[in-house]
Amino acid sequence: MRTDELIRAISADNTWVRPVSAALPLALLAGFAICALVFGATMGFRPGLAEAIAQPQTLLKHLFPVALAAAALGAVARLSRPEARLDGWTWALIASAGIAVAAFWSAALFTPVAAWPEAIMGETTLDCLLSITLLGMLMLSGALWALRRGASAHPALSGALAGLMSGAAGAALFALHCTEDDPMFWGFWYLLAIGVVTGVGALLGRRLLRW
Amino acid sequence: MRPDRDPPLDDLLRAANRGDRRAYAAFLSAVTPIVRGIARARGAGLGPETCEDVVQETLLAIHQKRQTWREDAPVRPWLYAIVRFKVVDAFRARGRRVHVAIEDFAEVLPAEAGPDPTERSDAERVIARLDPRSARIVRAIGLEGASVSELSAALEMTETAVRVALHRGLRKLAAMREGMIE
Lengths: 211, 182
Hints:
- Chain A is mainly α.
- Chain A has 9 helices and no strands.
- Chain A has helices spanning 3-12, 20-42, 49-53, 56-79, 89-109, 116-121, 125-147, 155-175, 183-208.
- Chain B is mainly alpha-helical.
- Chain B is 65% helix and 0% strand.
- The longest helix of chain B has 22 residues, at 21-42.
- The radius of gyration of chain B is 17 Å and the shape is globular.
- Chain A binds chain B through residues 1-21, 80-83, 149-151, 153, 207, 210-211, and chain B through 17, 19, 21, 24-25, 28-29, 32, 52, 55-56, 59-61, 63-70, 73, 77-78, 80-82, 84-85, 113, 116, 118, 123-124, 127, 138-139, 141-143, 145, 147-148, 163-164, 166-167, 170, 174, 178, 181-182.
């Protein structure tokens, strides 16, 4: 087919498309709502949540995944336009993840080295890893579906950011249930679980976010 | 030189996104030589058929992703980013990696099409893979310049059905050409 013929065919197709800037946040919000419902049905809040959050180190446990999810959301939304660069969002991501790393090492400073393995392992490691990962995957599938409307020039990176956002959202939810407040536990395992979802997001994004 | 050409492109696409078909056709026609110039310059070594393929894939991508243009941002960077993405893809499909720098594409001269380079290209192969009715509709509107109302009478379909078939046909075209790169 000649190019001018293709142009004629294309310009005859005037099906209206909703601007991506409006559609994306709505779709992601819906995905998060579903995730929250699943969380409520299977896990639920820990007893004594309000008292626990009053402790600074526990407050950070809740804060950092929210900050990380928000930073990743901003980054992935920005990147869904083909000409966009991440610019300042990179710093927001690093800073948010840095909260967890800083919390981990601050706690480590006050813990005798011999007690480190025990502090890191905690009691609910498997439950934590699995729960965050599964919640994250649930959110990731919705996020990838929503992001297909976009046009990222870096599909794998967008997938990774979607995974980062989803994993962090899953961690933010799971934190409401998790009873382990030692930063040497959550600073390690939460980041690890988020990392897994990020990696899966990158692999899936490379295929699914092409256009 | 550039500044007084930019506003028209932005205005055309803005109007097109609000449903102005004539503005959309004008935008696509204005943009094609620019895209072709870039494809030939950055796609040196791909050959004329492949370059025209890149042009067509870019036009299809523009069509599929026109909602990703923010109206408060200039059109050209958005456009250049799409061409760049498609040029890199074209090299990747042929097993070659290439780095296309984000330089000022405005320096590249626009190019008109030569004698039809698409006959033996991917384009024909892909249209042939559409189902017969979609292919017929896409070709009739493109090739013969038929209008939707003429076609709906000729094929005994409602106008809406013709529009939907056109829209889906173009979407499948874009998806198939993307799929051929995997």
